[in-house]
Amino acid sequence: MNDPLEEIFNLIKERKFKELKELISTLHAPDIAEAMEESSFKNSLLIFRLLPKDLAVEVFSHMEPPYQAEFSQLINEEELRELVNELNFDDKIDYLEEIPANLVKKILKNTPENERKLINQFLNYPEYSAGSIMTIEFIDLKKHMTVLDSIERIRRIGTDKETIYTCYVTDRSRCLEGIISLKELILASEDTKIEDIMSTEYISVNTLVDQEEVAEKFLKYDLLAMPVVDLENRLVGIITVDDVMDVIEEETTEDFHIMAGMQATEESYLDASVMELYKKRFPWLAILMISATFTSAIMENYSALIASMTILSANIPMLMGTSGNAGSQASTLMVRSIAVGDVEFEDILKIIWKELRVSSLIGVSLAILNFIRMYVLGKYTLALSLVVSATLIATIMTAKLVGSTLPLLAKKIGLDPAIMANPMISTILDALVLITYFTISSYFFKL
Amino acid sequence: MNDPLEEIFNLIKERKFKELKELISTLHAPDIAEAMEESSFKNSLLIFRLLPKDLAVEVFSHMEPPYQAEFSQLINEEELRELVNELNFDDKIDYLEEIPANLVKKILKNTPENERKLINQFLNYPEYSAGSIMTIEFIDLKKHMTVLDSIERIRRIGTDKETIYTCYVTDRSRCLEGIISLKELILASEDTKIEDIMSTEYISVNTLVDQEEVAEKFLKYDLLAMPVVDLENRLVGIITVDDVMDVIEEETTEDFHIMAGMQATEESYLDASVMELYKKRFPWLAILMISATFTSAIMENYSALIASMTILSANIPMLMGTSGNAGSQASTLMVRSIAVGDVEFEDILKIIWKELRVSSLIGVSLAILNFIRMYVLGKYTLALSLVVSATLIATIMTAKLVGSTLPLLAKKIGLDPAIMANPMISTILDALVLITYFTISSYFFKL
Question: What pTM did the predictor assign?
Fold first, then answer.
């Protein structure tokens, strides 16, 4: 995969610009964008100047948004305006969202009034909403048209459309009446009326719907594109599958980062500066460290018990580790099940009942295993072995119940469920483990 | 979203089958499949019998594979054979992979010899390879055809194809020469020759390439379909974007599960039985619990130290928690960066250098915070506060380095990087924390 990149760098080094121009014209836009991102600004600009105009626009649209913003400052205002004007509407919006407001103004200076209005409307859709990822470049048809009329219309206006494979049938007030795929058009006879073959049972979303919900529908119904309507069912845009795949990648990365106790980051690891990485990671680590002070307080509270039986403390790391692992199994499973739409809040009782059974089975099995390790194979007393095993059962069951229900509760009150599979849970579970363990020990050893 | 499901259940309860039939015919196949999966077998069969044949096939293809296998046993052999014969080729393969070999034989009994051969070839592609997710239902064109010829060919053979939006140009020995999109065909003039407008710089994969790599290419190049070729560049199938989205969902779920110390599961949470969930979760918990015995051994080794200074043990949960959190931040970031193709093994030195700087910054910041908490605000001695802070710096740096490099090493030797973001790492880190802490303490307190 890296060969074309290396070749580009070599040709630049040897200043063979004619060969470079030839090579570049055979490459795909995403690969050229990648080469530019990995080059110095000087070489990046050099590559850019060698690109034919159409390809230059495509390459620009494939750059990562932060790099787009940086790159914008390398070229002059006139060049930039031309470039941005040629972008697909949704790429244009993505770009304008990324750059400072005064640059947006400059770029839109010569844009016609009605397009500028539209752009401003799009820039105002909430982040992560269907409105923020849709495009206006779709094919609209009328239901009285014939298949032949429609194909002619597609021929006439199709070039700049994001997709021509799904067409949208609207009435005079732009309300969506049906959709029809190009496949259906191609396979139908030429004089068929659109209203006779269009599908009226289509899947659509409102502009304000969260992009995660959009992604779920694409997955469930195997869509290539989806219409976005406003509250009066007027068609305002469409979302295409390539943008949805980017959304899924982003949302998944966000979940992973949240679950590891980091703030979500859009930049790729190698591009992020040390300070940026520090800022994403430090806050949660600090919060968690301070929260863990509770565990120290609990241990100090039982310091007499520990002093009289130091062997007690030797099992604490194992107990905390096991309960944390059991909890994170349950919470991860639940976060993922919520994300792919397998479970909902209404299932909570079923889930609690299932987890009660699974966790008691696991708790008892691990307790037996632990008892064998400590008492049968090890040198521990019967009493201590029983105490540790009993603590295992109690804490595993707690961990599983807490881990599986908190993500559902988070979702219910409008939070991201992934927050509840965050290390915060382990810290809470650590405290619960210590309290349980010391309570059982005090009781058992009558201390 | 649940309303149609509820309506179905109500109509069944009231035995209003005519209304039920009407309602069902207005629903989308994925919704009907969902309703059937949530019904009793009896009602599921009832819904199925009310479906028009075409819709029945589509509904069947939208069932989860384990449910497909169960459902197959409800209908008679003749019905099943008819149903399976009507499936899209890739759905047929997916289904046949799921059911027992003797049932496969029965179903294929009346299949023509050459199709049976093809099916057996597909069933033999390695799991998770490009070959295992492709379909043979594509449009092939010849380069000497005109646009009009091509569109006529698409009209003639397009009905059963998985996609008609990308067409594949092959030579006499079925080698792939170029691809052309239906958009290009529609927008070109009718007498243009295919060879003049087809694209020869297409993205393709070999049958044996891992499905994750296929998914990465779809994401990078915004593809709707991708040709799959054998070692002689003969076109053997295509992969469509809807199947790739399912692959991404599966692979992501697998990563989440592995990272939480569970065996990956294909079934949805609510469908999985208690015993299945137990089997997925118990092995790792047991392994991790046994591994944690090392931590007990280390603590026992230092029991004299702990007995003389019980206050030492009070900081252990906080130290282990913080190091575990720091490690899982780094490993999660790395696993995700590898999965989306942001970093490769070759970047390892850059990564180590970056993590050294980030982790020393974080280590020092947390150490200062901890020192303030213990010495300035708390009632701890200067010596203990310094020991705990020094341990924090050392263990955070270790955790970050271990967490960020192990996933890369795993990838290098052909393992799933997610395994290295698994709780096993925390267990190793726990042991390292204890050793570091007690070593520093012994030295500092001259014990």
Answer: 0.81
- B320: Cβ contacts below 8 Å, ≥ 6 apart: A317, A320, B429, B430, B433, B434
Greater confidence (B107 vs B351) lies with B351
Q: Beta strands A166-170 and A139-141: pairing type? A: parallel
Looking at residue B443, its amino acid is Y
**Structural domains of chain A sorted by starting position, each given as residue range(s) with its CATH number in brackets:** 3-132 (1.25.60.10), 139-240 (3.10.580.10), 292-444 (1.10.357.20)
* Residue of B274, B284, B316 with shortest CB distance to A316: B316
Q: Check CB contact under 8 Å for A26 and B201.
A: yes
Angle ∠(A157,A159,A162) on CA atoms, nearest 5:
100
* B278-B283-B284 Cα angle (round to 5): 110
Site of tokens 């009896």 = B42
Six-digit token pair at B194? 């295919």
Instruction: Tell me whether strands A225-229 and A205-206 are parallel, antiparallel or unpaired.
Output: parallel
- Which 3 state secondary structure label does DSSP give A144? coil
Closest CA to B214 of B253, B246, B184, B258: B246
Q: Residue B253 and residue A299: Cβ atoms within 8 Å? A: no
Strand-by-strand arrangement of the B205-206 sheet:
B205-206, B225-229, B235-240
* Model pLDDT for residues A169-221, shown as the tens digit of each residue: 999 999 999 999 999 999 999 999 999 999 998 999 999 999 989 999 999 89
**Which residues of A fall within a CB distance of 8 Å from B396?**
285
The ipTM estimated for the assembled molecules is 0.80
Pair A146, A193: CB distance under 8 Å: yes
